[in-house]
Every structure is written in structure tokens, then in C-alpha cells.
Amino acid sequence: MSRLQDNQEKIISALSVLYEETADLLHVPSTISQVDREDTLQSDWYFEFYKDYVSKNKPLVIKNGCIDCPAYGKWSIEYFRSIISNKEVTVAITPNGYADGIAESSYNGETTKYFILPEEKAMKMGEFLDNIVNPQENYVCYIQKQNSNLNDFPELSDDIGEGYSWASKAFGTEPENINFWMGDQRAITSMHKDPYENLYCVIDGSKDFILISPTDLPYVPYEEFDVAKYENVNPCSYKITRELENNVQASIKWIAVDPLDEKSIDKYPQFEKARIYKVHLEKGDMLYLPSLWFHHVRQSHGCIAVNFWYDMEFDIKYCYYKMLEKLSD
């Protein structure tokens, strides 16, 4: 056994003891809890939500949690064609559905793994919808711009509003970002974590989440990858380039394992120790995804979703996770 492997084994052993001794503090769930929309209508729901889930950093599925949102039952391909067909939108294009994730590229007989950004194209909403209705091989379209991209759709903002009052009370703040998502069923969001409290609402279609608690960070393998970008993606070919914009870093530390790929899992045996939770959201369902939870996302074809990002608290839990991060380096 190499010195590096020996050190890794010692760290994992020490962390196992740490988990046992701090189990009461961490509130790691055995399953993902679920409540019904009616629970959120109670006057004290915001307090119960904070006490039982936010303060404990525990995910929660709220069945039918967003059916009162005007967008529910209204947003569809046909509706978007009727009101914003000529609107210019920014679309992420990839040949394989993996945007902002790890992909391989072969050149002169050598295969290299990169963290690859999607090609971003401006197109009419009608053209994007055509690509959803009639998907082309090796050409996957996804609206995933984030950073409050719902602001790019003022025609739709009244259908969403400013968020949920009980959530704003619990988090002590209004949403910092409201994001609009729509895309191809082949579009997959690779495993990652966000420094936000997240309310994720499925307006149409369905979503499948794979979740891992931030307390299992030592079992989630990271590697350093050079950053590249897709260019000139079309059904016949594409290009991978390392010519990046000035504000894009040249390399990034990213999660190396793909939870859908057995070969990838076999390569990182420590990942088998990670506690994995699977969550399926139907149309109208809402997921509270606490800050720093790892998540991997798939969707049905033409799925439409909106999520609300709230600032996280940099409290004792955050300090604990940062300590794990340092120990795992």
C-alpha cells in the first residue's frame, strides 16, 4: 500500500469515528421526508419547516407543493409558442446532454477527461421548442442559464411571483435568484453542490434527483480537471476547445464519479460508503434541497421547472463541512 493510500485510509477511519461521535448534532436522515401541500397552509408551517428541516439541513419533498402557482397547468410548449415564440433565449448545447460536467475527448490515440462547458447559443424560443419536440441526435438543448434567468422572461414572471412567504420567513430573506429550466430528457446535471438553500418546483414533467449529504464529503471523490468548451455543436460533429473567455478559470476541482456509471463507481471504491438518496418529483411537486447537499439531476422530456435560491447561513454546520473539506484534501 502506498503512503497516499495509507493516509487516505487513516483519514476515512478517523472520519468514521467523528461521524459516530457527532451523530446527534448532524441529523443525517435515514430517508427523505415527505409532507403534503396542506401542511404548508398552516399558520405555523414556516416555524415547523425551519425547526424540522432547515435547522437540521434535511431535505424535504412537498407533494403538490407548487400546484397553486399560476404557472402550474399553464406553462407548456403550446403556451410558450403562443406568447414568446419569437423571443431570443440563451440555450446550452451539448452533443451528449452533459453540460458543466466531465467528458472524454480523444486526440492522436490519447483520451483526456475535461470539465466541459456547453456551447451557448442565442436562438428564438420557437426554434428551441422545435428541438424539444423533434430532438436531433448528438444535439441536446437545455435552458439552464441560472443567475436569476427568470428575469430574461418578464412575460412569465407574473406566473411565478416572488417566492413562498413561509420559505422567506423561515430563511429570513427573500430569494436571491429565481431560475427557469427547460430541456431535453438527455440533459443531465452532473453531481455537484450549491451554497444556497434551494426550493425546486416541477411545473411540468418530472425530475429525478440523486442526493448525498454533505457529511459524506470524504466519500465523494474530487479530481482536478482542465476546463474546455464545446463549439460548433451540430448533429454531425462538434469541437472541444480550450480557448476560454477571460473570466473562465483554466482548471477546476470537480466531482470525478458518475453515479449512473458502474465503471466510474468501481474506480472510486470509497464512493460505495456514501449514503445515497433517490427522489422522484412529479408535476406540481416541490423539493427543499438544503445548502451544500450533493445532487445529480435527470428529467423527463420537455420538463419545465423553476427553483428559488436563498442565501445560506454560515453557521456551525458550515464550519463542520469546511473542516471535513480540509481533512479530505
Structural description of this entry:
The protein has 329 residues and is of the alpha+beta class. Helices cover 23% and strands 34% of the residues. It has 8 helices and 19 strands. The chain has helices spanning 3-21, 23-26, 45-54, 77-84, 125-133, 165-171, 262-267, 316-328, and strands at 33-36, 60-63, 88-94, 98-99, 101-107, 110-117, 119-124, 140-143, 177-183, 188-192, 196-204, 207-212, 222-231, 239-241, 251-255, 276-281, 286-289, 294-299, 303-311. A 9-stranded mixed β-sheet has the order 1-2-17-11-19-9-8-3-7. A 5-stranded mixed β-sheet has the order 4-10-18-12-16, with no helix packed on it. α3 (45-54) packs across α6. The longest helix has 19 residues, at 3-21. The protein is globular, with a radius of gyration of 21 Å. The model has no long low-confidence stretch (mean pLDDT 90).
TL;DR of this structure?
The protein has 329 residues and is of the alpha+beta class.
How far apart are the termini? Answer: 19 Å
> Count the helices. How many?
8
The run of helices and strands is HHEHEHEEEEEHEHEEEEEEEHEEEEH
Strand order of the largest sheet: 1-2-17-11-19-9-8-3-7
Work out the radius of gyration. 21 Å
Shape: globular
Structural class determined from secondary elements: alpha+beta
Biggest β-sheet, characterized? 9 strands, mixed
Number of strands: 19
- Unreliable residue stretches: none
Mean pLDDT: 90
Strand content: 25-35%
- Helix proportion of residues, in percent? 10-25%
